Batch of 2 targets.
Target 1
Amino acid sequence: MTMTSKPVENGVNTEALVGARDALRDAPEAAEFTWRATNSWVEGTYSRSTVDGFAGLGQEHRHEQAFTLDTDHPQVFASQDRGATPVELVLAGLAGCLTAGVAAVAQMRGIQLHSVTSTVEGRMNVLGILGGDPEVRNGFDTVSVRFSIDADASPEDIEALVAQSQKRSAVFDVITNPTDVRVSVDA
Amino acid sequence: MHVTTVIIGAGHAGLAMSRRLTARSIDHVVLERGQVANSWRTERWDSLRLLTPNWHSRLPGAPYAGDDPDGFMTMPALASMISDYAEAVAAPVQTETTVTRVAPADGGYAVTTDRGPWTCESVVLASGAANVAAVPAMAQGASSSVAMVTPLTYRSPDQLDDRGVLVVGASASGVQLADEIQRSGRPVTLAAGEQVRVPRSYGGRDIFWWLEAAGLLDEGRDEVDDLVRARHIPSPQLIGTPERRSIDLSSLADLGVEVVGRLGSLRDGVAQFSGGLANTCRLADLKMQRLLDRFDDWARHNDLDLDDPPRRPEPIRRSGPAVLDLDLHRRGIRTIVWATGYRPDHSWLDVPVLDRRGRVRHDGGVVLDSPGLYLLGGNLLRSRRSSYLAGADADTLALADHLRDHLDRVRLDRSRRRHPLEVLALDRGRASTAAP
């Protein structure tokens, strides 16, 4: 049991999350969310994605503001590096998701966090995407995440936070499991 | 035919309930589709033994009387123990009677069977929690050259093609079957998702000794954090063998089993596995260590004489890169064993008590919104002990009391519409039984 002299405050409203879990079990349709991004080609390998609205709880929602995410390829691929490489956005998504999970689980378990940093690396043989070797896949061979966490908890409890965060992470699931992806073209 | 209570299923739970009702002078019948202990006789693989030691596997009023209290019962031994119990408690069992429908009728229930109808005031569903193997829809993606079995249809390795086998699921059933099939010489690939790892024994005592001693099996359904989730946690990786060995992903890997992640998709004969295996292994290890910490705490507080501290299992060993996909045919896999869980079959239940997933809605076995209907069996029905054979003891005690009170209330309500003298007599009867 973690003993703390003052209430733990990681800035996560776990009461709301637990309340939502219980409420959504009784209203399963409301639990169906659709996340969405729009993208527009600018020039070359450079394009701009915008995330603005999403659907859930039976209605449409808007972010507080529209966020834009520029993606491009770096100069070693003969591009002009005007934004993150798309695969880097995937890594950033994984880090963001796992870290949010660490904070939420820590709050739930009464663990005060002081700092959470991580480095995500995806190893990739680019002969795959270049079409240079049919035996090489396009995506990452391996992805590694290295966390460094300062918190009022034992090393085992901190390790358990990170493990539980992976268990409940959407992006971890997206990356580790196959997903049915359907791409269509408007006539 | 009319009877006060119909118990559906003459397994250990139904018979324990029969004993409870007899003790309360509640007339009843136990309807059984086959013979007593039917599922244990006909829907279990040949080598299976109970996962709980004999001393733990007791029924109400019938502690283990054999000479091997620390052993694990084979299925024939268990079936004969349950049959003996049926005789000992003189359970009014009607065998070879399949219930085809239960529906509300006249404030009670109408039970239709293939051997005539019954009416009754209350019904106890004791037909088991593992009637149907829950096989995921993706099973359709296997090519037709691959044979598929479930733990309910599997008997022994001899029935399988002698080439490779993919076992899907690493709960108690999956790891035991992977172990047996690999030992038969068929190379096994085991797809493991979330797992619960526990050692068979710790500090020289069986895991169930510890769970009982530390009071973990007494944990009630209202004490667990998330009951829905807790009821769906996979069964612990255990095997009952005379040598009392542990079973886990490391022991299976030592035998040569190839352990891969959760099966994510199966399409055109190609299986894809999750890359999250390292984390599910880590979670299982962390949870096991927390459990053993609790045992250590308990031992300290109770001055238990132990090696200090008992040796703990090593973390699950993982070597080499994770296997993420397999072409089953090219890999020589000719059989898939779907050890992906079970569910009860309540398809004959014509009472609106199922949730959207088809599960009976109940509070500790008292079915909601259908007075007089009760449910036995399943994970964490009332407490953690409910998941095991021995759980029937306390569960039937509580539910039989509830059932009796329900009948008393119904009869009182009815009597109020009858002759005033009858009501008076009934009230007197209640008053005298209520006196200390």
Note: The longest helix of chain A spans residues 86-108.
Target 2
Amino acid sequence: MPNAAARGRAGSSNLDPLSLQMDTDAHRQKIVDRNLSTIFYLPSTIFLSVSIYGLYLWLRKNCMRIHIDNLHFTYPSGVRALQGVSLTIEPGEQVAIVGQNGAGKTTLVRHLNGLLLPSSGTVHIGDWLTRDSSVAKLAARVGYVFQNPDDQLFKGNVRDEVKFGPANLGFTPEQIETQVDEALARLELSEKAAVNPYDLTPTWRKRVAIAAILAMDTPIIILDEPTTGQDYYSVQHLAGLIQHLRQQGKTVIAISHDIDFVAENFDRIVVMGQGRVLLDGPAEAIFAEEEILNSTYVQPPQLARLAGRLDLGQVVYTVDGFLAAYRQRNPAVSPVKPPISGG
Amino acid sequence: MAIIEIENLTYRYPHTSQPALRDLSLQIEPGEFVAIVGANGAGKSTLCYTLTGFVPHFFQGELSGRVHVAGLETKEHPLEDIVLVSGLVFQNPFNQISGAKFTVYDEIAFGLENLGVPREDMPARIERAMALTGITAMAERSPYALSGGQQQRVALASMLVMEPQVLVLDEPTSQLDPLGSREVFAVIRELSREGMTVVMAEHKLEWVAQFADRVLVLADGQLVLSGPPAEVLTSPLLETYHIGQTRYTTVARRLQAENGWPAGQPLPVTLEEAEAGFKAALIK
């Protein structure tokens, strides 16, 4: 700024009081201007920063929306496994997929991490089209626990197995250690970390497979038949795990034949049959559709069936829900003392 | 005369410090349908292996006590003799499929070929096995181009075709949908009525309750309970053994704790029993 420089140079060599006063005024004006700027621009800056961050979070959250559009898939053998499936799963939803053997459940979820590509139709994981993304790339967003854990276990000890995923996703060494430790602890595998997965029983191998996916910290987790072969307490443990994942805001998609487990742990149930989605909604709505469920060999939960036989008039599927409905219908059998919890 | 007799069986896998089965004794009559329940790790699979000779012949390890199956003392006969009388359906159907055959039909024939069954006898047996397991339509498909549940049916068919005297099944319905599970239980019971002795390890208590003649409970390698399903599956001891109960038993027990369940009415295990019990509770 030549004038200011000139003025400055002039000012420094010019000790004329009037020009000194003018410089001071200018200087003071600058300070005032700067303060005004701060008062005026700072809130705008804050507002703008917050908006941009908010937009980033919204984008990132919606980045994980799963959008399946008119998906058709035919295996090379000629089996038409999916015949026009359209489904949207929002970030953070817990969805169970049920239906008869061969309905297309596993075929469907294998499209989510790119193991299968559509014969026609599209699958989006957020802004990524699966056709344009490799399985390795999609692994950063979608963790898939196989129906048969032996399909994915290959390392010599549990710890290495669980470490493999996060190590390949580019986490820092510290993050990897933390995520591995947490995953092992959550699946009660900490003491088995040095064991070869194939020296464990099938049930524990399933836990290793789940831990290996958890450690990857993907926003979307698919559990393909997590309850098969599991005893009562392992199923309870799994329910706790799903609760934990819900609190973390993860999207959880589970395929299961254990309808009681599904009813007690999932807000949204998708019923498939013959390559199509037959029903999609909350448990109450689904279990009322007995005929459609029968057509795809899905049985309503034990207590829902009992409630039906006793004409309780409500769709119930939990122990407390059943007892409440039963007492409502039969006030004579109301509790004489507070119920003992547990049982 | 029992077809299965086990006396004071204790077995330890190689390189382990704790026995998987301890001082186990049991007897099973011909044609019985016996279910084995227990928490994971209780010894169900190990008992299945013992009844079919894989323990000790395949797994090695240390076995003490007597194991007598269909006329053979298993310790004293090689595995190839035992498999003729006692067949095992594995817990993991993917392992049962041989990988040597390209169609389901051939897969099922494989066992018969190895037994030297005359060719002309095979089709009838194979078709029956497929019909029993509902896989006739899949005869020409590759065993690897099937869903998990379909593969499990193929694994079952490949053992049924062998017509063993004793059929041992380790969680044969794990991959199956509810109707499929019920079908397997129904078919197995039908076969046991025809004379086959069946021992089945299972978690699905609702079907066990409906179809099994007797339930054995294993905990920590020991046999802790034995009796009819209605009795065993409502035992208050089940919780100690980390075994669940059907939801029917749970709600009835809750009502019982509040004096809402009719005295003398047994706790239900099946839907029918629950319906009857709850209706009786109303009449009272």
Note: The radius of gyration of chain A is 30 Å.
